Structure formats: structure tokens, C-alpha cells
Amino acid sequence: MLVSCVAYQAGRKLADIAPEAIGSYVARPECFVWVALQDPDPGELGLMQREFDLHELAVEDARHGHQRPKVEEYGDSVFAVLHMIEVVDGELEVGELDIFAGPNYVLSVRNRARKGFADVRARCEREPHLLGSGAGFVLYALMDSVVDRYFPVLDLLETELETLEARMFAGGSSRANIEAMYALKQKLMVLKHAVGPLYEGVGKLYGGRVPRVCAGAQEYYRDVYDHLSRLNQSVDSLREMVTTALSVNLSLITLQENETTKRLAACAALVAVPTLIAGIYGMNFRHMPELEWAFGYPLALSMMVGIDAWLYTRFRKSGWL
């Protein structure tokens, strides 16, 4: 579906145009066309390929989707793939944004993502002195918007980890805690897969030799690179914290099992003493001593109660009961 098709010249909007008129505007000096597509069909991508002379390999990647985040250079143009992560009912949904940027055009293809980039277009149009630098600034603005949307996701995962840690020390269900932590680790892996490869790709867009499209906006790409560096470090730190939390949770389970074992051992000892005494006096051999003694029965009961009381006191002091 075509979202928008707009022609710009010298940093200012000329007009909303039809896709068939793209060629005439692209041919003008200091003019570039910004087209936005959402979940396009092969026919729409084919039309854009003809109008902008897009490289067939890049178009193939955009058509099939599910690509790894990357930044590739095809002659005078740049092809970038970014993952769009949205939180829906506590789960992470991953969409994809494919960006084709050339000397006089920008084509953004959004797949499996709900939130668009109307705010990015409005921001660019409010800054004609920057938009005048052409497709390079638009490419930066789109990348910056996607990267900025990662931060709320990261904050949500940090809050989720804090909640799980509090629940873990509050004595919640150990199995439920482990399952929740493992689910959190999977979410962090989704974010890592979005940030890590893009971090490497954006590093090619500033400093040293850069694609000609990006030559006028290197300081802006460096800013995106810094954001990705922070995200990458934060994700790695969170993953280590989750791993540590899992280890602590397993240690707590072991401690709890040890406490249970000690209590069972103490109870077994309390039961064993009267069982031993009763077993000895219950053998009923004919010549056993004390069988004819009048105080034998109360003495045996007193021994059972006395020894158990002593054991109970010792176990209480040791923390076993």
C-alpha cells in the first residue's frame, strides 16, 4: 500500500505526486522524491524498482523480508534494513523497515509494523535547512526514529527484571520465576538481534570513506551510532543480570531444599527415639529385664518424652525446626 509520495526541492515540499510522475521529478536538479510503502505487493515494488532504478538484490531482500539488520552500498545508493520492535500485550512483535536511499530519492518499505513515520516526515519538513541536504538526512531521520523506539522497550525490560527480582526474594513460585526469567531473556535476545548488527552497519556511515548519499550528514550518523552503542551495552548488561538472577534463583531453590531436608531429618530423629525404645521393650523375650518391674512402663514413656524434648530444643537452637 502506498502511504505517501512527495517531491521536495531545496528542502521544501513541492507536492504530493502520483507514482507514475516520479521520473519527471527525479530528473530535476536539487529535487528528490520520498516514497513510503506499507506491506507492498510485488507489483508496487516492481514499479518503484523501475522508477528509481533499484538494484535487484536489494529489491529481492525487501520483497522477501525477514532480513538481518544491515547497511549495504549499491553504487551511489544505500540499502538499509532495520527491525521495528513494538510491545503488544507484554510481548515483542518484530517488524521490518527497508530503506532505499539514492542521490535523489528515498524509498521506505514498512512490513509487519503498526506505527508509521508521519512524525519523522513532519520533523524533516520543519527543518528545511537540513532537509535541503537531501536523501542522506532523511535516511538519518528514519534510522534515528527506529533507534529511539528501542529505548522504551529497553526500559520496559529493565522494569520487568526488577519486578522478577522482587518476586524471587519474596518467595514466589520458583518454577514461575524461572519461566518468566527465561522469557525475559528471549525478549532481550530479540532486542539484541535488532541492535547488534545495526550497530555494526551504522559504523560505516561516518568517518573515513562513507557512501556519497551520507557524506553531508556524518555527525548525525555518529549520533545514531552513539545511541546504538548505549543500547548494545545496556542489553548485554541486562542479559548478564538475567543470567545472574537465574543462578541466584536456583541457589535459593537449593537452600530451600536444604532447609526442608533438615526439617525432615529433625522430624525423623524425633520419631526414631520413641520408636527405638518402644521397639526394644516390645520384643517380649521371656527373660528380658524390667518386664516384671512396676515402674518400667512410665520410665520408658518418660525417656521417650525427655530425649525428644532435648532433641527438639537442640534442633530449635540450630535452626532445623
Write a structural description.
The structure is a single chain. This protein is an alpha+beta fold and about 325 residues long. Among the domains are: about 1-145, Beta Polymerase, domain 2, CATH 3.30.460; about 260-320, Methane Monooxygenase Hydroxylase, Chain G, domain 1 (Up-down Bundle), CATH 1.20.58. It is built from 10 helices and 7 strands. Strands 2-1-3-7-6-5-4 form a 7-stranded mixed β-sheet, with helices on both faces. The longest helix has about 60 residues, at about 220-280. The relative contact order is 0.09.
Quick summary of this structure?
The chain has 10 helices and 7 strands.
Could you name the key traits of this structure?
single chain; 321 residues; Beta Polymerase, domain 2; Methane Monooxygenase Hydroxylase, Chain G, domain 1; seven-stranded mixed sheet; 7 strands
Q: Rg to the nearest angstrom? A: 35 Å
Uncertain spans, ≥5 residues at pLDDT below 50? none
Average pLDDT number: 86
Strand content: 15-25%
CATH homologous superfamily descriptor of the domain at 1-147 = CorA soluble domain-like
CATH class of the domain at 1-147: Alpha Beta
Helix/strand order: EEHEHHEEEEHHHHHHH
The total count of strands amounts to 7
CA distance, first residue to last residue:
70 Å
Shape: rod-shaped
